[in-house]
Each structure stands twice: as structure tokens, then as C-alpha cells.
From TrEMBL:
SMART domains (alphabetical): Fapy_DNA_glyco
Key words of the record: Chromosome, Cytoplasm, Cytoskeleton, DNA damage, DNA repair, DNA-binding, Glycosidase, Hydrolase, Lyase, Multifunctional enzyme, Nucleus
One Gene Ontology MF term: DNA binding
Protein name: Endonuclease 8-like 1
PANTHER family: ENDONUCLEASE 8-LIKE 1, FORMAMIDOPYRIMIDINE-DNA GLYCOSYLASE
Secreted listed as a keyword: no
Species for this entry: Poecilia latipinna (sailfin molly)
Domain (Formamidopyrimidine-DNA glycosylase catalytic): residue spans on this chain: 2-129
Region described as Disordered: 58-77, 291-332
Protein location: Chromosome; Cytoplasm, Cytoskeleton, Microtubule organizing center, Centrosome; Nucleus
UniProt key word DNA-binding: yes
CDD domains: MeNeil1_N (cd08967)
Taxonomic lineage of the native organism: Eukaryota, Metazoa, Chordata, Craniata, Vertebrata
Function: Involved in base excision repair of DNA damaged by oxidation or by mutagenic agents. Acts as a DNA glycosylase that recognizes and removes damaged bases. Has a preference for oxidized pyrimidines, such as thymine glycol, formamidopyrimidine (Fapy) and 5-hydroxyuracil. Has marginal activity towards 8-oxoguanine. Has AP (apurinic/apyrimidinic) lyase activity and introduces nicks in the DNA strand. Cleaves the DNA backbone by beta-delta elimination to generate a single-strand break at the site of the removed base with both 3'- and 5'-phosphates.
Predominant place of localization: nucleus
DNA sequence: CGTCCACGTCTAC
DNA sequence: TAGACCTGGACGG
């Protein structure tokens, strides 16, 4: 499931499924999970969810007790609400089912009050996910790329002197201190859209971007749909996945084909891939950029298919038949404006190629 | 059967 | 900069 869009879709799922549902009793943890017990029990409570970047927060809210209008706390009854903050690891998701349809690997379960009972489960096959009772958003994670765009942007641009930005842009995009919500498929899709070589220095790619995103309030007339710089795409590309609905990257789901068709680069036939310095596979097209790991050209094109990503050939063909967008080249006259401003404008140009990119760096 | 790979953190040498 | 943490699907022999 899990990059920013999937976490957000999970929160929407919980709110939709649990709307008006009354839960009861203790919260049950599987034997095998090493995560903490959730010491919460209540005769009647509700569950709501919110997301921020790559985290989801469940809020358990006791319903008002009718006992003389007084709050009770006897028998371990909760009278306070409780927040539980989840991270999904590689395989986490929520599911709301009948009691006998609880999925395998449901490691934390919330039971409804009615009979027959239903269950909200946190399912996590690989158990890399975690939860924290009475938790808060992890303090070292930056603002949400989707729902805190302005502060996300400010957080990046005001910390470009941080050594973290010495690294290749593709690796920095996975740094949750600055890009809370970006994961492996999103970084590939974002850099691909702008033709930014993945192993170009992050600071070089980000320096000179304006603090104010000029595309923020509606697009200037005549602007293409995808217009925007890298930071804006870190916002809009994940939102595209949210708008696909369904569950994004979840192969078990019926509407997964919509997500497959949406991918333009990640695991797409004909694209290149390299292991980055952290051993994660970076998918891209064209030049890898100056900071590519040594020996990248020996990259193996995967002979094996990703079990999760198997594009049906008819879908591929459909995609190829789509009219290709005309790639507008930047006219040379546009290129010799001034310094950082020139570069920043260039960085906001919709269609990138490496020549454009190098020109931009040159004028810095 | 065995090897490789997967949407992500973590912490330890 | 390695590993550790896990399960399970695809593919190779």
C-alpha cells in the first residue's frame, strides 16, 4: 500500500467505513506483533482517521455515557479519547470486514458493538509497520507534501544549506524530514515528468526555486496542466494518485489497473533502473546524472517481473496509442536571462531535457 | 526446491 | 553503508 497517497486513502477508507459505527471493548493485538499493546477499552466509542505524509492517526472517541450524565472510568473504561499513530512499512493497510472475514496478518483489531460483530483491522503482512498508542506525528518528519504544501515548500527551501541536500535529488526525495509522503514510485514519477536526471545534486536542482509557488492559485492562462517545478510536482503528483481513488498501490485490489495505467516510469517497460546509494531501485529515462553510483551502466534491466507490477500488454498498447504530448523546447532566447532567476524560471518550465538542465546550472 | 525482489524505516558497527 | 526486520510471489533448476 504505502506512500503518502495510500496512507491518505487509508484514512478516507476508515472514515467512510466507520461513519456511524459504534465500537466496543478492548483493542486486540496479534500474538506475533512486536508493537505495543493498546491499553484502551470502552463500552461505546467511535473511530476517525487523519493522515499526514506517511503516517495515519486513528482517534478513538468514547461516546457520552448516559450514567447520570457523569463520566465513568471504572473497570478500565476509557473516558478520554486516544490517538494511535500508524506507519505502514511496506505492506500496511486498513480493512473493515465481518468477524469471520478478518484477513491474515491483521495485527491490530477494533471490534464493533453490534452483533454479529465487524472488525476494523490493521493488516500488515511483512510487519514492518508500527503503531504508537497516545502517539503524535513523528517529530522528525516534515510537513505533508499533499496537505501542508506551503510549509512543505518553505521547509525545503529554507534548509537548502543542510548537508542532507548534498546528495542526489532522487535520494533526497526519500528523506522524510523534508519530503514526508514521497516514496520509491513517487520519486521516479516526479523526476520523470520533469526529465530531471535522478543523480543530479539535490541542492543544484532546488536552489533558486521561488518560495511562493506561482502556480498555486489557479494556473496562469495558457499554462499546461502539468506546469510546475519539482516541489510543486511533489504535491500534485501524489494528489493525482489520491484522485484515482481505489487504493493506489495495492495489487490485491480490483481497481489496481487504474494505478498501473497511471504509472509512466516506475517499473515501466523500456525504462532504466539503477540501485541508488541506499540500495533502492531508481527508475528513470535518459541520463542518470553526475552523481550516479559507479558502474551504473552495468545496471541490469530486470529480467524478472515485479510480482506486483505486471502490466497487461493490452494496457501498454493502449498507452502507446495515446497521442504524445508535444514537448515544447525552450527557445535559446529564453535561456539567457539572469542568474538564479533565470535558472529558477527554467526549473519551472514544463518540459525538461538534460540540456535545459545543464543550461540552468550553468547560469547559477 | 532455491534465489531475488517488493510501496520503509531503524540501529548498530 | 551494511544489515535487520518480515512474508510471499515470480522465476530458475
Amino acid at each position: 500500500m504505502p506512500e503518502g497517497p495510500e496512507l491518505h486513502l487509508a484514512s478516507l477508507y476508515v472514515n467512510k467505513m466507520c461513519d456511524g459505527v459504534v465500537f466496543s471493548g478492548p483493542v486486540i493485538k496479534s500474538e506475533v506483533s512486536k508493537n505495543p499493546e493498546v491499553a484502551f477499552t470502552c463500552d461505546s466509542f467511535r473511530i476517525t482517521a487523519t493522515s499526514r505524509g506517511k503516517e495515519v492517526k486513528l482517534t478513538l472517541t468514547p461516546m457520552k455515557s448516559d450514567d447520570d450524565g457523569k463520566r465513568r472510568s471504572k473497570g478500565g473504561q476509557a473516558d478520554q479519547h486516544m490517538d494511535i499513530v500508524f506507519r505502514f512499512g511496506m505492506s500496511g493497510y486498513f480493512r473493515f470486514t465481518s468477524e469471520d472475514e478478518v484477513p491474515k496478518h491483521a495485527h491490530l483489531r477494533f471490534y464493533t458493538k453490534e452483533k454479529p460483530r465487524r472488525v476494523l483491522s490493521f493488516v500488515d503482512t511483512r510487519r514492518f509497520g508500527s503503531w504508537q498508542p497516545n502517539g503524535t506525528w513523528q517529530p522528525d518528519r516534515g510537513p505533508c507534501i499533499m496537505f501542508e504544501y506551503k510549509s512543505f515548500r518553505e521547509n525545503v527551501l529554507s534548509h537548502l544549506s543542510d548537508r542532507a541536500f548534498d546528495r542526489p535529488i532522487c535520494e533526497v526525495l526519500l528523506n522524510q524530514k523534508y519530503f514526508n509522503g514521497i516514496g520509491n514510485y513517487l520519486r521516479a514519477e516526479i523526476l520523470y515528468r520533469l526529465n530531471i536526471p535522478p543523480f543530479v545534486c539535490a541542492r543544484d536542482a532546488l536552489e533558486g526555486l521561488e518560495l511562493e509557488d506561482e502556480f498555486e492559485d489557479g494556473k496562469p492562462k495558457g499554462m499546461k496542466r502539468e506546469a510546475g517545478d519539482v516541489l510543486r510536482l511533489c504535491h500534485t503528483v501524489p494528489l493525482e494518485v489520491v484522485s484515482l481513488g481505489g487504493k493506489g498501490y495495492d495489487p490485491e485490489k480490483m481497481d489496481y489497473s487504474a494505478f498501473e495505467a497511471w504509472l509512466r516510469c516506475y517499473y515501466v517497460d523500456g525504462m532504466k533502473s539503477v540501485r541508488d546509494h541506499n540500495g533502492r531501485t531508481m527508475w528513470f529515462k535518459g541520463d542518470p546524472g553526475p552523481m550516479a553510483p559507479k558502474g551504473w551502466s552495468k545496471r541490469k534491466l530486470p529480467k524478472k517481473k515485479n510480482p506486483h507490477i505486471q502490466k497487461k500488454s493490452f494496457q501498454r498498447e493502449e498507452k502507446l496509442k495515446r497521442p504524445r504530448k508535444k514537448h515544447r523546447r525552450v527557445k535559446p532566447s529564453q535561456v539567457h536571462v539572469k542568474r538564479k532567476i533565470a535558472a529558477s524560471k527554467l526549473l519551472q518550465v514544463n518540459t525538461w531535457d538534460y540540456v535545459t538542465f545543464k543550461n540552468a546550472l550553468f547560469f547559477l
